[in-house]
Amino acid sequence: MNIRNARPEDLMNMQHCNLLCLPENYQMKYYFYHGLSWPQLSYIAEDENGKIVGYVLAKMEEDPDDVPHGHITSLAVKRSHRRLGLAQKLMDQASRAMIENFNAKYVSLHVRKSNRAALHLYSNTLNFQSGVGRLWGRGCGPQHCQDTSTFTRRLMVEKPAWRQHLPAETCSMCCDGGALAHDG
Known about the structure:
Layout: E1 2-5, H1 11-21, H2 28-37, E2 43-46, E3 52-60, E4 69-77, H3 86-102, E5 106-112, H4 116-125, E6 129-136, E7 149-156, H5 168-175
Parallel strand pairs: 4-5
Antiparallel strand pairs: 1-2, 2-3, 3-4, 5-7, 6-7
Helix pairs in contact: 1-2
């Protein structure tokens, strides 16, 4: 498996992966919007044949009244490639890019409360915490979720997850060798 930054020629296959994996689907212009606005934030996972088996579509929120923070618009891994750690690797890469390129302080996302597998992934594996609260009809694709509740999740990234396993002397200048800080 290879994780790499998404390129414009990947966008159609990212959308195809989205259609196969998720009930929230986006028009192609939405992928282009992300790709043109924040090209360094979206990543794909490809198999040994170069076929896209997963992706993360990410952006920066542009709220002048809040600290810089990123948002995960969509994360999907094909069923045949789940439970291999690809979602975590994709999220780690996107989070790292948000920190390095935009000085992000946290990453947010929305997840359907009925999606137990995703809630487990975000809360237990990726250490996202409950954020602002429950949202109704927000954070989903444009055609869906009018009556479906979603939860906001937030991961504080001031001390990035991708550095928590390095020896303290390796990252003492950037994060004091510490582990993640979490928002409750």
